[in-house]
Design a protein that fits this description.
With 264 residues, this protein is α/β, with parallel strands linked by helices. It is 39% helix and 22% strand.
Amino acid sequence: MKTKLYIAFALLFSSLTFNMVAYADGHGGKKKIILGTEGAYAPFNSIDANGNLVGFDIEIGNALCEAMNAECEWVTSDWDGIIPALIAKKFDAIVASMSITDERKKKIDFTSKYYTSPVSFAVEKKNAIKYFSQGLKGKAVAVQSGTVTENLVNGLFGKLVKVKAYKTQEEANLDFNSGRVDLLAADSFIISDFLASDAGKNAEVFGPNIDDKKYLGEGIGIGVRKGEDELVKALNAAIAKIRSDGTYKKINDKYFNFDVYGAQ
């Protein structure tokens, strides 16, 4: 009986080990993975005063590379061009808070999710907008272009509001603060981070969080070129590993006071 148990555990360990090092270079060394991100979406990915990439996405990406025994290198790309850059092989994977949607899956493949985020709205505290259709009619809403937030606002409220899309979230935030738009929309973590900052001190959450899979997809995943099945498998195994060994929670708790992963 003990022999059978030993064999079973040995096989399990062997399987797990293979999953974690399957992305090695084939010569006993570490395989290099180039990760693409935006660098303009704090607290998930941004560039600090020293020119370093920082944020939740960056730490998760580094942890996944360590779990895969791979060498990481980061590059940045404008959000609007990040999928074309992946397809053009400027990097191997997108780790940039990208929602897994059916539309994007026509162009690229995704790993399983590594976090989940609904969409939130912010309004100036002095603004008496009410959360009902006539209250929203004719109001201007700032969003980042090319995001699921833009799709959701257009899909659910496009007939009522004027949607203004900006190249970066920071540009949307600046126009909101300047009073050029009435509302700011983004994923709930971005809105929460904005409201906690000095820039958002005069604003507040507007209405409920919206979690509509029609627009938001299946969660936030890592984008990979079509046909890169080995990399997807290795990344999925690494996501499972950092979730189970406490690494994910350690990174999560550094940025948030709740589990951003959401339901299994």
